[in-house]
């Protein structure tokens, strides 16, 4: 009889050839070590076999915003965490993920996944508003929005325009001005 661990699949029993040997075939959709135990009568032996994740099916499994609403000062970052797996959900380490950032935001063009298949993406901007961040590997991509807020600590008067002048001094009719306040960027 044959037992396979860690989700591996094998025939439950095999029959030996005339020379006393038999080849045991084991498959799995789960990357990692599987313990294979062959038993006959009261005798058994176990060996480990290793299955590796299928890099040919690498895909963006998840893209999560972990820090949002950063100040648009060009230094404070919004962050996202991307996870890359194969078609069966096995984490893929060492995968190069391409990153695009919209609306003038800045990020590294590529990041590389860690042993758990994840990597953090850091994004900065000097432009307040929404930036679309897209992570891609192979033909798989996901996008998320992050928001940058104006840097109120650098608020300044950008424009002061007289929009209505020379009104009658009757205590009711007003001269008007329009002010535009911006941050340093």
Automatic annotation (TrEMBL):
Family: Belongs to the intimin/invasin family.
SUPFAM superfamilies: Invasin/intimin cell-adhesion fragments
Protein name: Big-1 domain-containing protein
Organism annotation: Escherichia coli
Pfam families: Big_1
GO cellular component terms, A-Z: cell outer membrane
Upper taxonomic lineage: Bacteria, Pseudomonadati, Pseudomonadota, Gammaproteobacteria, Enterobacterales
Domain Big-1: 1-52, 60-149, 157-185
């Amino acid at each position: 009889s044959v037992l396979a661990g860690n989700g591996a699949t094998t025939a439950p029993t095999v029959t030996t050839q005339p020379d006393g040997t038999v080849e045991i075939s084991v498959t799995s959709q789960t990357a990692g070590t599987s313990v294979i135990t062959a038993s006959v009568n009261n005798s058994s032996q176990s060996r480990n076999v290793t299955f590796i994740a299928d890099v040919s099916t690498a895909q963006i499994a998840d893209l999560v915003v972990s820090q949002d609403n950063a100040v648009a000062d060009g230094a404070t970052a919004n962050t996202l965490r991307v996870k890359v797996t194969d078609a069966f959900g096995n984490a893929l380490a060492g995968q190069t993920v391409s990153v695009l950032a919209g609306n003038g935001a800045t990020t590294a063009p590529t990041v590389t996944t860690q042993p758990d298949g994840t990597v953090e993406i850091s994004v900065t901007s000097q432009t307040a508003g929404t930036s679309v961040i897209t992570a891609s590997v192979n033909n798989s991509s996901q996008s998320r929005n992050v928001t940058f807020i104006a840097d109120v600590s650098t608020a300044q008067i950008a424009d002061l325009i007289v929009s209505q002048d020379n009104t009658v001094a009757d205590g009711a009719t007003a001269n008007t001005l329009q002010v535009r306040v911006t941050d340093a960027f």
